Automatic annotation (TrEMBL):
Protein name: ATP-dependent 6-phosphofructokinase
Species per Swiss-Prot/TrEMBL record: Caloramator australicus RC3
Assembly mode: Homotetramer.
Pathway, per record: Carbohydrate degradation; glycolysis; D-glyceraldehyde 3-phosphate and glycerone phosphate from D-glucose: step 3/4
Binding site for Mg(2+): 103
Record flagged with keyword Metal-binding: yes
Family membership: Belongs to the phosphofructokinase type A (PFKA) family. ATP-dependent PFK group I subfamily. Prokaryotic clade 'B1' sub-subfamily.
Function: Catalyzes the phosphorylation of D-fructose 6-phosphate to fructose 1,6-bisphosphate by ATP, the first committing step of glycolysis.
Binding site for ADP: 21-25, 155, 186-188, 212, 214-216
Binding-site residues for substrate, renumbered to this chain: 126-128, 163, 170-172, 223, 244, 250-253
PANTHER family with a match to the protein in the record: ATP-DEPENDENT 6-PHOSPHOFRUCTOKINASE, PHOSPHOFRUCTOKINASE
GO annotation terms (biological process): canonical glycolysis; fructose 1,6-bisphosphate metabolic process; fructose 6-phosphate metabolic process
Length: 320
């Protein structure tokens, strides 16, 4: 293999730049040409491809977002779109592709590989931590720390006013951001899609907390369960305690990546290139029990993500 390409696809995540840097510099250190592809799969189809040098990735390890930009591509979902993409990759001599993104991006990579023989390796870049085959995805740790920072600030003002504070965080199907930030931030309640929750019990907890002398209640809500505004109204109606909703939104996707995310991204980026040099394809990189692993894309995508019941119960016990 002489030339590889790298792209970011789907939602951006802090640490994607550190992964790009690792791919480019590992590739160059091993005598490969590395091509940067802009705007995800659209960038292949539109030929937004340029040769990367070591200095193309200077001064980016600490930056959030992705220097390659990211996009969602409807055209790439079609067979014709992927054929076009393959033809463009051929023109640029790209034989191997590193795709940094989530499950959708991995599925696209797999199809491109099945249909046209392009060698592909996926790196999990998404703040949601919604991929079952890996303990962590790049960007998750930074997002949790961003939420934690917001919680700390909300605690101050909620305590002063003796309010209930509901913080709505990202996570449509996977409640990991709420769970991890909730445990780390000492939330009274954590509401996530994977765990059933009882509204009456929630109100009881709030009322009992107040009776015990707690100055505030903090509730972490994953967006997949519902909106914070609606829940705040309902809680206020039942408990009579002033309840405020804060939706953190896209700030969770930005910011300088944490040391954990930078190190994870660096290791994963390097491993992806090594796999391509070994002639491997249709693999995704992950981390399990602290070790970098790789696995077949189909097998990885067929795994069902489970919520950490122990952490969920622990958060409940510790907030008592
Ligand atoms: P995130 O977790 O941030 O949403 P993702 O990679 O899952 O990231 P998607 O929007 O699902 O994000 O996918 C990104 C792109 O991958 C899509 O715009 C499309 O081009 C391609 N893709 C997704 N699913 C498929 C599919 N089933 N077949 C072909 N291409 C796909």
């Amino acid at each position: 293999m002489k030339t590889i390409g790298v792209l970011t696809s789907g939602g951006d995540a802090p640490g994607m730049n550190a992964a790009i840097r690792a791919v480019v510099r590992t590739g160059l250190a091993n005598g490969l040409r590395v091509m940067g592809i802009q705007r995800g799969y659209n960038g292949i189809i539109n030929g937004e491809i340029f040769e990367m040098t070591s200095s193309s990735v200077s001064d980016i390890i600490q930056r959030g977002g992705t220097i390659l930009r990211t996009a969602r591509s409807e055209e790439f979902r079609t067979e014709e779109g992927r054929k076009k993409a393959y033809n463009v990759l051929k023109v640029f001599g790209i034989e191997g592709l590193v795709v940094i993104g989530g499950d959708g991006s991995f599925t696209g990579a797999m199809k491109l590989s099945n249909e046209h023989g392009v060698k592909v390796v996926g790196i999990p870049g998404t703040i949601d931590n919604d991929l079952a085959y890996t303990d962590y995805t790049i960007g998750f740790d930074t997002a949790v720390n961003t939420v934690l920072d917001a919680i700390n600030k909300l605690r101050d003002t909620s305590t002063s006013h003796e309010r209930v504070s509901i913080v709505e965080v990202m996570g449509r199907r996977c409640g990991d951001i709420a769970l991890y930030a909730g445990l780390a931030g000492g939330a009274e309640s954590i509401i996530i899609p994977e765990q059933p929750y009882d509204f009456n019990e929630l109100c009881r907890t709030i009322i009992e907390s107040k009776a015990k002398g707690k100055m505030h209640s903090l509730i972490l809500l994953a967006e997949g369960v519902g909106g914070a505004e609606d829940l705040a109204k309902k809680i206020e109606e039942i408990t009579g305690i002033e309840t405020r909703a804060t939706k953190l939104g896209h700030i969770q996707r930005g910011g300088s990546p944490t040391a954990f995310d930078r190190i994870l991204a660096s290791k994963m980026g390097a491993r992806a290139v090594e796999l391509l040099m070994e002639g491997k394809s249709q693999r995704v990189i992950g981390i399990r029990d602290g070790k970098i692993i790789d696995m077949d894309i189909v097998e990885a995508l067929s795994m069902k993500k489970k919520s950490d019941d122990y952490m969920y119960e622990l958060a409940k016990i510790l907030s008592f």
